[in-house]
Amino acid sequence: MPLKDLLIGLGIIAIWAFNIIVIKLGVAELPPLLVTLLRFILVAVLIVPFTRISRHQLRWILLLAVTFGGLHFPLLFLGLQQAEAGTGALLVQMGTPFATLLAAIFLKEKLGSRRIVGLVLAFGGVVVLAGGPSLPPPAATALLLASAFFWAVSTMIIKLAPPIAPFTMTGWISLFAIPLVGLGSALFESGQWQAIHNAGWAGWGAIVYTAVMSSIAAYGLWYRLLQKHPVSRVVPLTLLMPVFAVILGVWLLDDPLGINKLAGGAMVVAGLGVINIRFRRIHVTRPSP
Questions:
Q1: pLDDT for residue 52
Q2: What is the phi-psi region of residue 37: left when phi exceeds 0, alpha when psi lies from -120 to 50, beta otherwise?
Q3: pLDDT band, residue 278 (cuts 50/70/90)
Q4: CA-wise closest residue to 244 among 18, 5, 23
Q5: Which domain range does residue 64 map to?
Q6: Is residue 157 part of a domain?
Q7: Which terminal CB of the chain, N or C, has fewer other CB atoms within 10 Å?
Q8: Is it the case that residue 282 has pLDDT exceeding 50?
């Protein structure tokens, strides 16, 4: 991969890692479901007027609006409210092992010894994290793992669905998720109008950043990289996201950096690497006598 594209890829990962920090700042000023709702409204306004979907695509978009828009994102925002940035990012990355297991169960994809080792490492890393003080309360941990699970479910749905342009999918999922998240906010949160009135730069900045930078700009650049380069060279960059998030959490939010977070995080990242990266066998040719 050329240096320019590598730097773009690293920039995308930095945007997504900083997104975790921004969400934490946002949900400190505004209720989490309200932040999610306003984010979806902004994404829909910026994308939907310029895209179209077919009737055949509609049912898949509606299903993803539930699993991705109505479950993954709200659970992520709720969980991050009580979790450290780095630990939250590591737990959300468990979506990859969940997707691997779901693919083996429902799509009959073979796990193989390499992926089994990766799964054991990743889930073992969560166990190590659980033994340290950086793990969020049980409810927040469950929310983040559930968010990762519904990301994995959404990945399976996308794999089965007909081709849909990424921006089109993002915009229309956001549109159809608005009533779901809006109902959740109305039922489980209070003081929304007062929170909106009192919100400062952190609250509104979180909404704009998560919508424009994370959802639209970063994903747009990411899809371009995937079009230009083999998936095997691009996807492994995502392993750096929780690493960046841990560093940013320590630097900007004064999150502690204990041995459990370091060891557990390393195991999770290593497990994801084993699952995602295929190592080519090196054949050594003996010189002729």
A1: 95
A2: alpha
A3: low
A4: 18
A5: 3-276
A6: yes
A7: C
A8: no
Residue 287 lies in a domain: no
**Residues 14, 218: Cα–Cα separation, whole Å:** 10
pLDDT at 77: 95
What are the structure tokens assigned to 281, written together? Answer: 């066998």
Confidence of residue 37 (pLDDT cuts 50, 70, 90): very high
Residue 283 has pLDDT above 60, yes or no: no
For the CA atoms of 124, 129, 131, 135, the dihedral, rounded to the nearest 10 degrees, stands at -140
**Radius of gyration of the chain, Cα coordinates, nearest whole angstrom:** 20
Q: Is the residue at 285 inside a domain?
A: no
CA pair distance 196, 26, nearest whole angstrom: 11
Residue 203 and residue 195: Cα distance in Å, rounded?
Answer: 9
Rounded Cα distance between 85 and 255, Å, is 8
- Are 272 and 122 in contact by the 8 Å Cβ rule? The answer is yes
Residue 158: is its pLDDT beyond 80?
A: yes
CB 83 within 8 A of CB 134: no
Q: How far apart are CA 35 and CA 31, in angstroms?
A: 6
**231-238 average pLDDT score:** 68
| Domain assignment of residue 281, yes or no | no
Q: How many structural domains are present in the chain?
A: 1
Written as six digits, the tokens of 196 are 């909106």
The pLDDT score that the predictor gives to residue 131 is 62
Residue with tokens 């990945």: 155
The tokens describing 49, both together, are 């007027």
- Range in 22-26, 121-125, 179-183, 227-231 with the lowest mean pLDDT: 227-231
Sign of CA dihedral 196, 35, 215, 272: positive
Cβ-based burial of 230 (10 A; exposed 0-12, middle 13-18, buried ≥19): exposed
